[in-house]
Amino acid sequence: MPDACENISVSAEVSEKNNAHTVLMSDAFANAAKLLGEPARAAMLIKLMGGRAIPAGDLAVAAHVSPQTASEHLARLTEGGFVIAQRHGRHRYYEIANEEVAYAVESLLVLSSVPHAGSTSNGVRPILGSLEHARTCYAHLAGWLGVTITDALQREGYLAPVTGRAFAVTDRGREWCAQQGIALPRASGIADPKLARPCPDWTERRPHLAGRLGVMMYKRFSELGWLVPSRKSRTVRVTLEGRKAFSKCLRIVVG
Question: Are residues 19 and 45 in the same domain?
Fold first, then answer.
């Protein structure tokens, strides 16, 4: 009997600890949802999805609130770990805290919206120069072009999807990256989601490439003059040189 009582006591203690963890997770999730659920804060986060640091005044305009109200919202987002702030002279600039935040925002956009009229999920290719055609998602490429490049990398055998949130970069893929001037870390033999992983695309409803490879690829394509980011929005323009290059190296027809 003592053993049975002891087992019951241990089980009750474990159950109590599990319940405490559940409560903590529930509270944390609810607090995060509350932060993201406020329209002005949501507008600020979407504005910051371009991956650039933006002054508080511009974020106030994007959210249609006063500078004072914007400061209060940004303070809460900073405290919650969604954004980080840096001071440059008299101004404070804000940016998305990390790629995980960008992933969460893009995922919520996919869950909360119907397929966009300009997406290829409706059989219509987006207009060149539009947000749906090519844009930044934090620091990597998204939209029709981002998804199409991701599809091409898999079709050509450069990326291979694996179980979980990761792509494996194949030997052919590493050779291709080297040819484009993209320096990858030494192969570990294990698919690393920090290096290459799918990110849900809210206009295409299919994943584009995220992770360090996605960031390096977008940066390299920009350095080569294939892509030109807009200074006023997340939109990315494909140059004539870029159209030729994507056709040659990935068999993608842009335009």
Answer: no
